[in-house]
Amino acid sequence: MIESLLVANRGEIARRIIRTGRRLGVRTIAVHSEADANLPFVAEADVAVPIGPANPAQSYRNVEAILAAAKATGAQAIHPGYGFLSENADFARAVHQNGIIWVGPHADAITAMGDKINARNLMAAAGVPVAPGTTDPAPNADAAVAEAERIGYPVMVKAAAGGGGMGMAAAADEAALRTEYEKVRAFAERMFGDGSVLIERYFPRVRHIEVQILGLADGRVVALGERECSVQRRNQKVLEESPSPAVTPELRARLMAAAVRAGEAVEYRNAGTVECLLDPTTGDFFFLEMNTRLQVEHPITECVYGVDLVEEQLRVAAGLPPTFDPDALAPSGHAIELRINAEDPKRFLPGPGAISVWDEPTGEGVRVDSGYAAGTTVTPNYDSLMAKLVVFGSDRETALARARAAVAGFTITGPKCNLPFFAELLDNPEFVAGDYDTGIVGRMR
What we know:
This protein has 445 residues and is α+β, with helices and mostly antiparallel strands. The chain is built from 15 helices and 20 strands.
C-alpha cells in the first residue's frame, strides 16, 4: 500500500480522502490556500502545507506549488480528488515525471476523454451508443446550422473541452442556434482556452444516468452499477440515487457492458464514470462523456456495493488487487445523496458566509461527508458545496424516509442553504414516484 499521500484538493473531498488514508495507516498530507487554513481537512491531515492565496489559480491549480509541497513532505502519491487539476493530463504527466504515483487514470486516457468530440468518436468506434452529432468541431455558425439541419432540431450546442454542466445551451431553431453558438464559443475560449464547439441532438425529456467503472491493476475494467443524476439545476447535479428507478435489469446489463467497453477502449485504470443520456420513452441511451476521476456522488455506489472507492483507487495506483471479487459484484439496497450547497433554495444563487451553527443529522443509514463546521466560513472563492448528505436503506422507500428525517435534522446557520429545497423535492409526487427527468427542478419553480 502507498505509505504517504498528498491530497491536491480541499473541503469535503479532501477530508473524505484523508479519512480513508488514516484508516489504512497512510500518512496524509493536505495542501491549502490561505482562505482554507481553518477548515477541518487541514487539521485532520498528518501534515498541512500552505500553497498560496485564495485564488485557485495561485493555489489549488498551481502545479508548481503542489509538486513542491509533495517533494518537501516526501509524498509518495498524489490524489487529485475532483475538480481543480483532477482531469488535467499535463498535471498527471508532471506528477509521474517527478517520480510520484498518480492516483488516477493515465494521462493519455485523460487527454482522449477530455475532448468531447474525440471522446464521441472513440466511443462510437468501440460500439458504445452515441447521440446523433458532429464528428468534427463546427468552425462557424454557418457550419453549425448545416449540422443541425442534418441532425434535426432541437440541438445542444456544447463546448468540446467543457465539463461539469458548463458550456452547454439548447437551440430549437436556426436563429437560436446562431446566438447560442457564439455564446458557447466565447465562453469556451474564456473558460477552457479552447473554443471548439460540437452540435448534438437535444432530447427535451431525458434522464441522466452514469455508470461507475474501475480499471483494475491487472488490466480488467469492471462496472459497479449505475447512478441516477437527473435532479439538476443549470445542468449541474444536486441529488443522485442508486440504483436508478428508471433502469430495468435488462437495461442495466446493457449500460454496464457499454461502460466497460468505453473503459477498455482507452485502457482505463483507476476510478472513472461513463455518463449517458437515457430516453425514457424508448429505453435508448447515448454516451455523454467520461469523467476521468472520482465523482462527487461516489458515496452512493459505496453504500450499495459495500466498497470504499478511495481505498480501491489507492490499491489500483499501488498495483494491488481490489478488496472485492470482480466476478461477484452485487448491489444491495438503495442510496441517495443530497448536495448541501451554500446557495439560495429558490434561485440557487451562491450565498457564502460564516457558519455559526452546524448540526449534522445522525442515525441508521445516515452519512455526512462535510467540508465545514461551526466557526468556519464559506468563502466566495470556491464551489458552494458544503457537505454531502447520504442516506441508505433496504429499499427506495426506506431511503426516502431517512432522507426526509435527515434533512429535517440538519441545521446550518450563517450562509444561505438549499436544505429547504430538498425538503420540497423529497415530497414532490413526481420524484417520489421515481418518474422524473432532468426538467424536474424547472417544473418545481
